[in-house]
Amino acid sequence: MKKKYNYVVIILMLFMSFCVVNQGIAQELTGKEIIEHTESIETLKDLRGSMEMQIINKSGKARVRELTIIGLENEEGIEKSLIRFLKPSKVKGTGFLTISNPDGPDESYLYLPALGKPRRLSSEERGGNFMGSDFTNEDMSSCHEDYEHNLLNIEEIDDVAYYVVESVPKTEKMQQDVGFARKLTWISHDKFQVLKMEVLDINGKIIRILNYDEYQEIEKDAWIPTRLEMATIESGSRTILEYKNIEVNTGLTDDDFSIRQLTRPL
Amino acid sequence: MKRNILFVVTVVLLICLTVPVFANNDMEINGVLNSRFDLEFDSVNIDPFINGTLELTIANEIASDSFFKLEAELSTQKEQILRIKEAFLDFYFKSTDLRLGQQRIAWGKADGINPTDHFNPVDYTRPFAEENRIEIPALRLKHYRNDWIIDMVWAPFFIPSKFPEPGSRWLSNGGQMPSLPSGYELNDFKVEPLIEPEFNLENSEYGIRISRWSGTIDASMSYFHGWQKEPVSHINMIPLNAGLMDLIIEPAYHIIDVIGGDFSKDFVDYVVRGEAAYIIPEEEHVRNPYLSYVIGFDTYISDKSYINIQLFGEKESEKKNKLGLTVAYQYDLSDYSQMEINGVYHFSDNDFLINPKYSREMSDDFSFSIGAYLFFGKEGTELGQLSDKDFMFIELKKTF
């Protein structure tokens, strides 16, 4: 399985956690169809907004990062993202530009203001978490094609019916790569909103829990979670991501994802 | 003098244009407070060096199509207490950006050693600082067209590299006294004063760099015309009667033309970077034209470890070629602590430097690092001459 750069994660998280209201969809859905439905919104072309990330250790001490994000899928199917850091001040102005080509190698560039010039990065990176947070690539950016999805049951929580879908890595090697054995996702029956995700190890023990919250309707019947909280059970740490001022289909173009924009001072 | 007047004019202009922004509540001042303690562990002499710096940065948009930045540094270093690092105005047009003012022009894709990078002089009073280039007043125009960037720079003033003053820690022992022809004895020895080039249009520096950033490879070609920022000494031997000889050293700055190129390409797991420049001194008696080059790669060996290796060298006709190696290895001990080892080795002189370092982020705005610089090699070699200046350091950094 290919691992994208960590900073692509936060863009993908938004793109992948969109959900559209269940409008006359057949009731007998498979696990795969349910997962696919949570990720599909054909009218989404681009996205812009800002994000605050709080990384809280077990003693309650928090570190805060603020960044701006823009993302685009152009007509050729090329996905582009540009992230600029606003806080903390030591990383202010740092930027990541990523261009995912469907038919060719991906391009990734880092800009550090102190260096004064962009720097090409390798298109793959081995694991690790995102900026010291509890999020990993595997939690959020993994492609659903890499998993077998099974609908386990339908559970009712607070008078809302949820599909419980189990996702298992297709191969043993992939299971070793991702560091978990399976994950369970609770998806609402009516709006296809993800409520939470549990990541489990080979013994069935929960490693991490991700809660989705504060859904915002960004287009008619299309919702996005603007608050995500990931807790790592063993370390007792947790990370809260809050998206702000999210706008979609704002008319971004390829020119907004260029070396020029990456290196422009903040 | 003219340079000082123009600098003052630039700063005044900058202040006038940015007054509306100062009035704006969104104005933000960022800074870094750095405190560093160096301890040389020479067997005879143990000297501590304590240096503190405070960097303040004010930067903001003036309007949607313009930006300003002012960065100043206050230092306890006696050579320079106050230094304006960057002070520029940006203007953004449809496909062109204009930057006017004191700035850093960083050309080249290699790490640390950039044969194509000649605009900014070097501050040799801080040879091992993270960034030891001196910003210069310049006008820079970048034109963007699809994947292409045309970067044009004009720098009207000559600013030389900065060397340590007498008594300074990093002052080298100087070159050896040239040997006289047999049968002669030294009568008089004199060093002529070093004269900086006059400020006029003819003495200004300029350059152009055309680069392309694409999915498969990033590459650029560049041309620089300007001054070598370090003086070259000419030795004048004047024979007198009775086997005596006067020796006169005439240090002078010289013009160079530099034709260069660089590239970077990623091969999925690793990135290869290369950079080369052909440097042509305008006066041939100064030095023969020579080729300077760097080629290397960097990659993540595992989730936590990163390595960067570069081969660098110089090739000059009728002279011994220089060849060296840089290695940088980083290992993440945790999300907030890192161990790194950097090294430089010169094959030709068999001298080398090892720089281990441990750093830890105590919080988002406070970090601590400890490390050492260890020099090895024969006296007279670039790194060997520092072998009695091995030192360890402790650095505390607070950002706000």
Can you characterise this structure?
The complex is a heterodimer of chains A (266) and B (400). Chain A is mainly beta. Chain A has one domain (8-263): outer membrane lipoprotein receptor (LolB), chain A (Clam). Chain A is 13% helix and 46% strand. Chain A has helices at residues 8-16, 31-39, 137-140, 172-178, 259-263; strands spanning 19-20, 46-56, 62-73, 79-87, 95-100, 107-112, 117-121, 147-157, 160-169, 182-188, 194-200, 206-219, 222-232, 238-248. Chain A is globular, with a radius of gyration of 18 Å. Residues 1-9 of chain A have low confidence and may be disordered. Chain B is mainly β and 400 residues long. In chain B, the strands form two sheets. Chain B has an 18-stranded antiparallel beta barrel. Chain B has a three-stranded mixed sheet with strand order 8-12-11, with no helix packed on it. In chain B, strand 14 and strand 15 form a beta hairpin. The longest helix of chain B has 21 residues, at 2-22. Chain B is globular. The interface between A and B is large, with 37 and 48 residues.
Offer a few descriptive terms.
heterodimer, A: 266 residues, outer membrane lipoprotein receptor (LolB), chain A, 14-stranded antiparallel β-sheet, 5 helices, globular, disordered N terminus, B: 400 residues, mainly beta, 18-stranded antiparallel beta barrel, 5% helix
Question: What is the strand and helix layout of this fold?
Answer:
The complex is a heterodimer of chains A (266) and B (400).
Chain A: H1 8-16, E1 19-20, H2 31-39, E2 46-56, E3 62-73, E4 79-87, E5 95-100, E6 107-112, E7 117-121, H3 137-140, E8 147-157, E9 160-169, H4 172-178, E10 182-188, E11 194-200, E12 206-219, E13 222-232, E14 238-248, H5 259-263
Chain B: H1 2-22, E1 29-40, E2 48-63, E3 66-75, E4 82-92, E5 96-103, E6 136-145, E7 148-155, E8 185-191, E9 205-213, E10 218-227, E11 232-239, E12 244-252, E13 255-267, E14 270-281, E15 290-300, E16 305-316, E17 322-334, E18 337-346, E19 351-363, E20 366-376, E21 391-399
Parallel strand pairs in B: 8-12
Antiparallel strand pairs in B: 1-2, 1-21, 2-3, 3-4, 4-5, 5-6, 6-7, 7-9, 9-10, 10-13, 11-12, 13-14, 14-15, 15-16, 16-17, 17-18, 18-19, 19-20, 20-21
